[in-house]
Amino acid sequence: MLPLLPFQPRLGLRLPSAAAAASAPPFPPRGPTGVVSVVVVGRARSSVRLTGGGGGGRRRGSALAMASGDARVAGIASSIRVIPDFPKPGIMFQDITTLLLDPKAFRDTIDLFVERYKDQGITVVAGVEARGFIFGPPIALAIGAKFVPLRKPKKLPGEVISEEYSLEYGTDKIEMHVGAVEANDRALVVDDLIATGGTLCAAVKLLERVGAKVVECACVIELPELKVCFASNKLIN
Amino acid sequence: MVAVDEAPPPAAAKEKDRGAADPRLQGISDAIRVVPHFPKPGIMFNDITPLLLRPAVFKDAVDMFVERYRGMGIAAVAGIEARGFIFGPAIALAIGAKFIPLRKPKKLPGDVFSESYVLEYGTDCLEMHVGAIEPGDRAVVVDDLVATGGTLSAAIRLLG
């Protein structure tokens, strides 16, 4: 097994600074927030392809493929099922429910994340509704961090803060409880999949608005259309 | 066809009348917040999110279920969207069972079974993937809260 890379974000997602920071108290300048994934979906075919990052047809500076030489990754990748034309024609949907039916693959997925984060002083794991609720809590429990659900509007009772983000057509919103995350919390954002990065960017903004440091975003799957949701529209290596 | 065991309701509510209560129950009970008039006037909403903010208490809650179900040959833990997704997978992982998400309509891709159930006004529907559960599988259903039991009953019918 290849040693895990030393912990530093290889990819920077530089977040839009002006709007989000305008109403926030002064914090240390934000550095770029990295995204990692276990499985990277190949561009040429719909089947899952493992990559060590860069090379071949892959765009440089894509999300770091975590532990790509690890023997567990192949089993995880092969447990994910692709459903064509869901939720609409032309979309090849990466279905993690088959991974969840394989206790070893599920265990290995969690272990990979736990090994990466257990010594990073993470105090909060934020999971994006709903599939982030499946992967986030086991990670949080294993590393002794709080778990914070980031939810669709009107699901969380009591006082919330919300962040809007763009969809292909229109906008959506995610919400977080006021007081769940505190200034100087070190946060990890978890979801099953990153596509354009829009939802994750909104999650990062929410956490940063309350003064947390988002250490990284962790996803099981990365799609090749990973874009950037920030002003400069550049990936920073 | 499928043996289904309903997960016990929040432990504090059920256990406090018994003799020597598990010392973990107090912390779990204290970590649940009641939010009045949510989602509508008159409803006292039991909010588990503060429990999730206390790692030791969250762990205790999961451990209590794991201790109950480990060694019972449970093949599958089915969690009800969305708060059942927070508790179910950790239990499944600890006892070596598969995790099956039971979801609102149109969320699961591919072939699904569907079961409708009655709400105060109208009906709702729960779905499960075809093939997730196999005949003879011993299953546990997990959710954060049971009220009327309508959703849990639908889950049991889905699995059976």
From TrEMBL, chain A:
- State the compartments where it is located: Cytoplasm
Which stretches make up the Phosphoribosyltransferase domain?
102-224
Give the pathway listed in the UniProt entry for this protein.
Answer: Purine metabolism; AMP biosynthesis via salvage pathway; AMP from adenine: step 1/1
The Gene Ontology CC terms held by the record are: cytosol
Q: EC number(s) for this protein?
A: 2.4.2.7
Q: Which InterPro entries match?
A: Ade_phspho_trans, Adenine_PRTase, PRTase-like, PRTase_dom
**UniProtKB keywords:** Cytoplasm, Glycosyltransferase, Purine salvage, Transferase
In terms of CDD domains, this protein maps to: PRTases_typeI (cd06223)
Q: Does the keyword Transferase apply?
A: yes
Q: At the top level of its lineage, which domain of life is listed?
A: Eukaryota
NCBIfam families in the record, alphabetically? apt (TIGR01090), PRK02304.1-3 (NF002634), PRK02304.1-5 (NF002636)
Assembly and partners are described as:
Homodimer.
What is the name of the protein in this document? adenine phosphoribosyltransferase
Give the source species: Dichanthelium oligosanthes
Q: What is the lineage of its organism?
A: Eukaryota, Viridiplantae, Streptophyta, Embryophyta, Tracheophyta
From TrEMBL, chain B:
Pathway in which the depicted protein is active: Purine metabolism; AMP biosynthesis via salvage pathway; AMP from adenine: step 1/1
Q: Which domain of life is it from?
A: Eukaryota
What general EC class does the enzyme of this chain belong to? transferase
Q: Which parts of the sequence belong to the Phosphoribosyltransferase domain?
A: 56-159
UniProt protein name: adenine phosphoribosyltransferase
| Lineage, top ranks | Eukaryota, Viridiplantae, Streptophyta, Embryophyta, Tracheophyta
Query: Which GO cellular component terms, listed alphabetically, does the Swiss-Prot or TrEMBL entry include?
Result: cytosol
Give an example GO biological process.
purine ribonucleoside salvage
Keywords (alphabetical) are: Cytoplasm, Glycosyltransferase, Purine salvage, Transferase
Which species does this protein come from?
Dichanthelium oligosanthes
NCBIfam families, alphabetized: PRK02304.1-3 (NF002634), PRK02304.1-5 (NF002636)
Q: Give the multimer and partner information.
A: Homodimer.
Q: List the residue ranges of the region (Disordered).
A: 1-20
Give the protein family. Belongs to the purine/pyrimidine phosphoribosyltransferase family.
Compartmental location: Cytoplasm
Which Enzyme Commission number(s) are listed? 2.4.2.7
The record's GO molecular-function terms, alphabetically, read: adenine phosphoribosyltransferase activity
